[in-house]
Predict the 3D structure of the following.
Amino acid sequence: MKLSDARQQFISSWGAFATHWGINRTMAQIHALLLVSPDPLTQDDIMAGLSLSRGNVNMNIRELVDWGLVDRILLPGERKDFFSAEKDIWKVATQIIKERKKRELEPMMKLLAQLEDVEGDKKDKDVKQFTETISGIKNFSKQADRMLDIMVKADENWFVGSLLKFFK
Amino acid sequence: MKLSDARQQFISSWGAFATHWGINRTMAQIHALLLVSPDPLTQDDIMAGLSLSRGNVNMNIRELVDWGLVDRILLPGERKDFFSAEKDIWKVATQIIKERKKRELEPMMKLLAQLEDVEGDKKDKDVKQFTETISGIKNFSKQADRMLDIMVKADENWFVGSLLKFFK
DNA sequence: TTATATTTTCAATATATTTTGAAAATTCAA
DNA sequence: TTGAATTTTCAAAATATATTGAAAATATAA
């Protein structure tokens, strides 16, 4: 397969894949382009490479920088900003875990804690089912949260080595 | 907090939360409603409970059944179909993992395998970066895939007990 | 059968999200 | 300063997704 076709297919599939994860197609495509680009790119490079408008590239690049997946690079003597993606996939994954924990899991856990005690007869089956469901989700989230914390702190070799040996 | 308010808030937050995970709001709200309902509900119950049209409820209920998160129940002597959600959150989680692995992770891994060898000079930096990126993602996915397999096979107590003790 | 209840489908509509592109703001060299 | 290069913003347009509701299909009781 030709490099240009393979790159094209990777970028487009990565974009489609991302939509299943609540990430917009364009943001994922820009990320994919930067992942396969050995050198940093400018906004214009990205616009040309993916046929997108300036505004669109600008907004999605900012989002990627906010997520900590892309760095803005100022090259000496260059007027334009350059952008470069973190290439180490383990680091990419842990960064995404960190952010999603902070943005989604933690707020959800706060809400669950608030919903845990409702007024009313503990023997009423509606009350009972509600509190059981909430506490079930709360406990599960707590475990998941802890596990993710540990994964984020660990390094890749530890994960690949110890954890998977343990699992076998 | 009153039960009715707490239920309302849970349903609405669960719906909002789900949109970050590529799941539509309505499907998640129906799921939430069924999770807190001790008895099975009919389509009409769900329509009334969430103020949704018949068609909408019908489509999203089918989707939930396809995902294996909700069962269609035929009560003897009842004309209407009833629906009930799996209440065990561990089972819900493993079911979601199974389905997403099958629907998303596995197809992506197939694609990555195809993209792994591209024509061209292995010393060309574009070729090099592309193959390194693809193989990095491929290896990471393989590890994740294995870990998820093991989690799905394991039961909850194992997860909560051994795994987390190991992590500490 | 036939009539009625129930479920499913799907074109039309409504809503939400993404994208554009030009104007405004900012940066920076001269 | 000034002016050209670059980045950012954001209202309007385009696109994508979700929702409705009524008609068609299906199931069930009489």
User: Anything to note?
Assistant: Residues 42 and 80 of chain B are 7 Å apart (CA to CA). Helices of chain B lie at 3-19, 25-35, 43-50, 54-66, 89-115, 125-153, 156-167.
